Amino acid sequence: MSNEKFEKGLALRKQVLGAEYVEKSMASADSFSMPMQELSTEYCWGHVWTRPGLQLRERSLINIAMISALNRPHELKLHVKAALNNGLTREEIREVILQVAVYCGVPAGIDSTRIAREAFAELDAAKKG
């Protein structure tokens, strides 16, 4: 797939999520899953994340809240790490999760806190190693 929105989306996706993660996702996609990779890259990243109305850190705040509320642990861990790349602090991430707990339920907040801690631990371990 080659078009301007896809290419811009792919570049931003690599910037935010990490080139290694994105390249691995694209390389491991098969004929069944590649259309989802293309859709998310072009539309999520190329059409929405590249828009000028919000900064990347603001988009990360929103994503953490929505993904926590939807109970999507894999995506949450990925976006917690991305939020740090986008300039959020661990304290800001914690505050978003606390607000999720109040408005979406304590179980969502507890699970999201656990997943965020796992993401932080993975990043800390990678820095040491």
Question: What keywords describe this structure?
Answer:
129 residues, mainly alpha, 2 domains, 81% helix
Give a structural overview.
With 129 residues, the chain is mainly α. The protein folds into two domains: 1-53, no CATH class; 54-129, AhpD-like. Helix content is 81%, strand content 0%. It has seven helices and no strands. The chain has helices at residues 4-17, 19-28, 34-49, 56-69, 73-85, 90-104, 106-128. Helix 5 crosses helix 7 (106-128). The relative contact order is 0.12. The model has no long low-confidence stretch (mean pLDDT 95).
Report the mean per-residue pLDDT as an integer: 95
Q: Count up the helices.
A: 7
**Beta-strand content bin:** under 5%
Class from secondary-structure proportions:
mainly alpha
CATH class of the largest domain: Mainly Alpha
Shape: globular
Largest sheet descriptor = none
Seen as an oligomer or otherwise, the chain set is: single chain
Unreliable segments of 5+ consecutive residues: none
Helix content: over 70%
